[in-house]
Amino acid sequence: MTSRTLSGPSRFLSARRHGVGAALLALAAALSLAGCGRTGDQAAPLAEPAPPPAPMSSPASLAGGMAMKEQRMRSAEPSASDQAQGGQDAPLQRFLAVRQDLNVEVPAEQLADAWGKVRDLCGTLKCELLSSSLLRETPQQPGNATLEVRVEPADVDKLLGGLAGVANVVSHTTTSEDKTAEVIDVEARIRNRTEFRDSLRTMLRDTVTKRTMADLLAIQRTLSDTQAELDAIATQRKMLAQQTSKQHIQIQFTPKRALVSSGDGYSPMRNALRNAGSVLAESVGALITFIAAVLPWLLLVVLPLGWLVRVLWRRRRAKAA
């Protein structure tokens, strides 16, 4: 066997290679140990202790919990301004309550017919009659009539067109009130109350949780109050729907008046002759009223006083004779 002797530079390079290899092996061993430690930590987590059983709730704590839940639901209820700000990207639906007031004139003899035609026209449209009144003309007062209806926006022009055919519109006023914020608030309250009512019903149907009779009665009482409040809010929403889905129209019928001009055709004598009959009737009526008022006093005071004066006068004459 032959052996080769390494020179000085060759021994130095060989030693350097052995040192680098040893360092790489040490680094790989450290990384593998660290990985094994992490894997062991993840593979064997500490077991958490089981939660203790929930104590039996008392009626006071149960009512307090329901009150706190209701308060949280009220605080989480979105307001009209929040919904308006949150829905800036989408167009906001507006709810307007529109009201129209009209004053029309018709000839006195056609007042009842015009009023009846408009009322019958309302019956053929999507129109709800709220109130109607008719006062016929008498010698003491002129006649008048009123109609108050709610009409779908699509049939408003038909109703006003039929009105213009039988009467002369003197004044027409239109007003509108924005009910958008009120409608949004009411709808949010309806959603909130509905969720709270459903949660109470779920609690009543729950047969796993042990509750006393007092707890069940408290839940039932809260459920009844919530349902009553929900019914009241639903009624308010229906009223808002009537105000915003239909237009409120009120029509006042008045008889047409003839204007008397004071031009060249005016004659005081003709006017006096025309009014002579009424003036004479008023004078005779005043005289009758005066006689009727004085006659009782005449019988009770004047006649006895005249008889007494006459008796005294006769006695005086007898003494003088």
Automatic annotation (TrEMBL):
It comes from the Bacteria. Residues 1-34 form the signal peptide. Keywords: Membrane, Signal, Transmembrane, Transmembrane helix. Residues 40-88 are annotated as: Disordered. The keyword Signal applies. Residues 96-310 form the DUF4349 domain. The keyword Signal applies. The chain crosses the membrane at residues 284-309. This is DUF4349 domain-containing protein. It comes from Variovorax paradoxus.
